[in-house]
Amino acid sequence: xxxxxxxxxxxxxxxxxxxxxxxxxxxxxxxxxxxxxxxxxxxxxxxxxxxxxxxxxxxxxxxxxxxxxxxxxxxxxxxxxxxxxxxxxxxxxxxxxxxxxxxxxxxxxxxxxxxxxxxxxxxxxxxxxxxxxxxxxxxxxxxxxxxxxxxxxxxxxxxxxxxxxxxxxxxxxxxxxxxxxxxxxxxxxxxxxxxxxxxxxxxxxxxxxxxxxxxxxxxxxxxxxxxxxxxxxxxxxxxxxxxxxxxxxxxxxxxxxxxxxxxxxxxxxxxxxxxxxxxxxxxxxxxxxxxxxxxxxxxxxxxxxxxxxxxxxxxxxxxxxxxxxxxxxxxxxxxxxxxxxxx
Length: 343
Hints:
two-stranded antiparallel ribbon, 6% strand
């Protein structure tokens, strides 16, 4: 069993959460399933595990990135929910993730080809909520790591899932060998301490900070989150200014993976939707080149979708209209193939 403890890079402090929400603060809840691949009941075996995700969700994006970059796309199956949750007219209720590949996206006027039916449980459930109810749980979030053999949820905390995929990649059937497969959390004490420190900053100020800003109903709470977000970006921009390709130096690690989903969304989505209009990532030359560098790594580009992100974030706004830009200097994600845009 994985224990998060007081790890501020994994979950938010829950003290006085109800009153904080009542005052307009966004407070992220705690994931309830914290088993691990490698526990007695969940051995590391190829083909045994399944992921339920939504491609617009940045927490799911961590997991799809780990699956892609570690060479696990063939050995861990995956279902993709539609990026907008159910509406008020749904018989099961609103705000539920659903596996409905025929649902039409307002952005494209057609179904999204990445969306799937539910295939992991053998029950053809429509809703992620139903997967939890089969376990007696009231949760309804994604991602979910599921054991197809035992028919149970293993874990629904993205930070845990990406780390266990990394630790067990070979046993899980990675298509990559040795030096071709990144080691996201190397067993080097000083490097792990550095990654842990970066993870805490990235989670608190950037990953969760974007939601603190975008979903706040209080101006002062929003301002605090906004300022912390851009202070953290400035700190990371300075960190990369010495020419290092990745946050800890020459190798891609878990810290880079955890930063990527938020920065990938910033210019085309969060700048507007999360009210994070202080600057674009394009305005940070070193971060922009880092973003392009990570996007070019094998397994990264196909692990996310800005169409799903746009549909998911703007499609749940008050009128459901999805902005078509930005168009300058070029469309996204094509722009991520052009690090020279900041030169």
